[in-house]
Design a protein that fits this description.
The chain is of the alpha/beta class. The protein contains 15 helices and 8 strands. It has an 8-stranded mixed sheet with strand order 1-2-4-3-5-6-7-8, with helices on both faces. Helix 13 links the parallel strand 7 and strand 8. The chain is globular, with a radius of gyration of 21 Å.
């Protein structure tokens, strides 16, 4: 009993200190890291939307499975030169409140529609979806086809990839849910905040040591995500750090991973308007199976343009934002909704 007390009491004290540290940090974040856009009230909570530019079309940017509106910063800055463009945070991410209910594309498309109406953002909408966001924009176009004038898929997820997961894929999903829960727990007691703070001070080894104590897989996942996030403009990194030191981000991410097979099956047989102007941008370094899936996505609509971003990974809008901007402008032109010249950028890759 004496031994347990000697170990347990300091541990309890350490956890309590971590909880206090986390709560104080969240209060400071709310004061220092202000939303880039505005909070739109809809039933069940508020969603954050950031709109810039103006024009006859509203470009709606839909993020990947656990990304926020900040991931579109490079693209939005350029698209705003010729159109109204809006990025937003789905419920539970960024500055948006958590919401009850399923996190499947059909439900998320409905929430997006409610938010667009509440924000008085009028159609027509040109939808742009990255990764999992590709499922959402497809679901939106299927439900609200009269409001959609075009679509750009940015290395979008093919629903067949996760509709009937193999045993290995099931293990990946279970691992993703488990790691997300662990992340939420570590956030609650200040561990994630401590690691992020150490990294921001340049003490990456200290942060890695803390993460490694929770397993090599946790360290590998966090390292990969950090590698992508650091491609964002430096002035946005404090906001990213603030978002991912909150338990809600990890808890929401867990729900997405858990429902991914259901989400994929929901979109698998959905139909797009055959004449919808569409462009598909694909990563140049994709494995053959994924490259074939991207070609299939380009066959969803007649005359869709398929563009392979050479020497580019999954996050095309961070690695080669000018390609995404050019594709958006071309689809808007096909819809006769812009007259301005496209912003100057590198020559777009030849369609395949």
């Amino acid at each position: 009993m004496t031994f347990l007390s000697a170990i347990g009491l300091p541990l309890i004290g350490l956890v309590l200190c971590g909880i206090v540290y986390q709560q104080i940090g969240m209060v400071i974040d709310r004061r220092r890291v202000r939303p880039t856009g505005r909070l739109v009230r809809i039933p069940g909570g508020s969603l954050h939307v950031n709109c810039t530019g103006h024009g006859g079309v509203t470009v709606v940017l839909e993020s990947g499975i656990s990304a926020s509106s900040l991931s579109w910063a490079k693209v939005q800055q350029e698209v705003a030169k010729f159109a109204q463009v809006c990025s937003y945070d789905r419920a539970g991410f960024g500055w948006s409140d958590r919401r009850a209910g399923g996190r499947t594309p059909g439900r998320l498309a409905q929430e997006l529609n409610v938010m667009l109406n509440a924000a008085e953002l009028k159609p027509p909408y040109l939808l742009v979806g990255h990764s999992f966001g590709g499922l959402i924009v497809r679901a939106y176009a299927a439900q609200f086809s009269r409001e959609v004038c075009g679509m750009v898929l940015v290395d979008a997820l093919h629903p067949a990839e996760w509709a009937d997961p193999s045993r290995e894929q099931q293990r990946v999903l279970v691992g993703g849910v488990l790691l997300s829960w662990i992340g939420a727990l570590l956030c609650s007691v200040g561990v994630v905040r401590l690691c992020v703070s150490l990294a921001a001070q340049g003490r990456t080894r200290s942060g890695q040591t803390v993460l490694r104590s929770f397993g090599a897989q946790v360290l590998a996942v966090v390292t990969r995500i950090v590698g992508e996030v650091t491609k964002l403009p430096a002035e946005l990194l404090p906001a990213v750090r603030a978002h991912w030191t909150q338990p809600k981000s990890f808890l929401t991410q867990a729900r997405y991973f858990a429902s991914l097979p259901e989400s994929s099956r929901e979109v698998l047989n959905s139909q797009l308007p055959p004449q919808l102007p569409m462009a598909v941008l694909s990563a140049g370094n994709a494995i053959p199976a994924r490259a074939q899936e991207q070609r299939q996505l380009a066959s969803l609509c007649e005359g869709a343009e398929h563009i392979v971003a050479a020497q580019c990974g999954h996050w095309i809008h961070l690695d080669r934002p000018e390609l995404v901007v050019k594709a958006i402008h071309q689809i808007a032109e096909r819809s006769n909704l812009v007259t301005e010249k496209a912003p100057s950028c590198e020559e777009i890759e030849k369609p395949v």
